[in-house]
Amino acid sequence: QVQLVESGGGLVQAGGSLRLSCAASGRTFGSYSMGWFRQAPGKDHEFLAAISGRTGDTYYANSVKGRFTISRDNNRNTVYLQIDSLKPEDTSVYYCAASPTFGKAVILYDYWGQGTQVTVSS
Description:
Elements: E1 4-7, E2 10-13, E3 18-24, E4 33-39, E5 46-51, E6 58-60, E7 68-73, E8 78-83, E9 92-99, E10 111-112, E11 116-121
């Protein structure tokens, strides 16, 4: 079992930045691929970014390239999502998730955090 807790969301003006954090439990954090998703009301989870285990390979959805940056600190069992140039349409609940494999499909991710709300004012 892997437990994930997101933090760092909040209210920010358009054009601003946020750094979301996801703290993970367990002794094997470094072996998991980690992903960030968001879910707006009434919509499915939208893949944003993924990062592999020890090597830290990254993959981004085309829609967020250049604005979103995923990173991880395996010593702290934490994955981050830096979001720059925030837009009102970025408003959503943001989730981190853990997968045994590196990929973008929701079905690959076995463990999910509770989510953190990001609200961007225009």
